[in-house]
Structure formats: C-alpha cells, structure tokens
Amino acid sequence: MKNWITLLGLSGLLLLTGSCLKDGCEDVVCLNNGACLEGTCFCPLGYFGEFCGEFRYPTKLELLSVAVTAVPNEKPGGGPYDLLDEPDLVIQVINDGQVLAESEVFENTILVDEKTLILDPPLELDLDGTYVFEAADYDEGGILEKIPTAAVFSPRLYFDNFGMFFQVVFIPENPTVPTAGVKIELAYTF
Ligand SMILES: [Ca+2]
Question: What is the pLDDT of residues 33-69, one digit of tens each?
C-alpha cells in the first residue's frame, strides 16, 4: 500500500510538471513569493488577492509554544548559573513587566537540549503588544535568575519588516550572550 501511494504521488508530480508547460502561467506574475499553478496564484500566508498583492494582518494571533533551544553557559559577568549542576530552566512569556505564562521547572537542563513551554490553551497576543520570551535559572526557594535571551517580539513591527512566518527564531546580537536561541510558534486567523 505504501508503494502504491508513492507511485500515485510520483505520477501526480509528473502530471503537474507536464501541465506547467502550457498552464497559463506565462503571463501571470504572482507577487510576494506567490506560486502560479494553472493560471492561478497561490499566496503565502498573509497575502491575498488575485496576484497576492494585498497584505493583511491577522485578526487574531495566538502563541502556541515557546522553545528555548540554547542558553549561554555562563552569566554575562562570568561564572556558571549553578555551581554544582546544570541550570534549572524556566521559560516565561512577559508583557509590560507581567508574567503571562510560565513553564514548569526543567531541572538540571543540559544546555543544548531544546525545552518547550506549550501554551494550552493558546495565548492570544495583541498585535501592538511587545512580548519578551525570557529564560531563567530556578534556584532553591523559588528565586529566578534571568538568563539573557534577547528574544523580544512585537508582532506588528515584525510583520511589517518580514511578512508572515509560521515560526520566528530569535538569534541574539548581543555579543555578551554567546549562545541563546528562542523559537516560537504562532497561529493566525484572518
Ligand atoms: Ca538552579
């Protein structure tokens, strides 16, 4: 059965390739990285209209998850976060100084291991809001020591500059943060 499906997929691909030669796309220009098929433009997320020329912001934007893919080995001033073992990672979503969501404590995190805060239900974001995805080391007594990630997300600014993405990856530019990575997943409603 698996082979049969593969064959079907292959013949479908051949048909598509063949029809592209005379599919009415010669005079069609799809804007904003839209793709033409049989004379019709298929638009990337966020783009609409016959030729993908119209951009729309989502009417609803939801945060599904925040993954920390890496954190620095040392504090910005030098020295480890935990003297005896690995840092205990907590992931926070912060807006206007308020913690909107917080992960469990991932104890003795191996630094290269990806840890994910899943928002269930998803967290609705304000297009004009500014969100900080923070990592922290959890210490005895509930003390959180901030680990710089430089992951600041302003949806409207982001869309204005980069268009729509399903996934946003933050790579800090601050050289005092040797390695830190945060990856978020979003859901859009138009
Ligand atoms: Ca700790």
Answer: 999 999 999 998 889 999 999 999 999 999 999 999 8
Query: Ligand 1 centre and the CA of 83: distance in Å?
Result: 9
Work out the burial of residue 18: count CB atoms within 10 Å of its CB; fewer than 13 is exposed, 13-18 middle, 19 or more buried.
exposed
What separation in Å is there between the alpha carbon of 3 and the centre of ligand 1? 51
CA of 128 to the centre of ligand 1 (A): 34
CA of 6 to the centre of ligand 1 (A): 50
**Domains in the chain, start-ordered, CATH in brackets?**
2-55 (2.10.25), 60-189 (2.60.40.150)
- Predicted TM-score of the model (pTM): 0.76
Do strands 98-102 and 35-37 pair parallel, antiparallel, or not at all (unpaired)?
unpaired
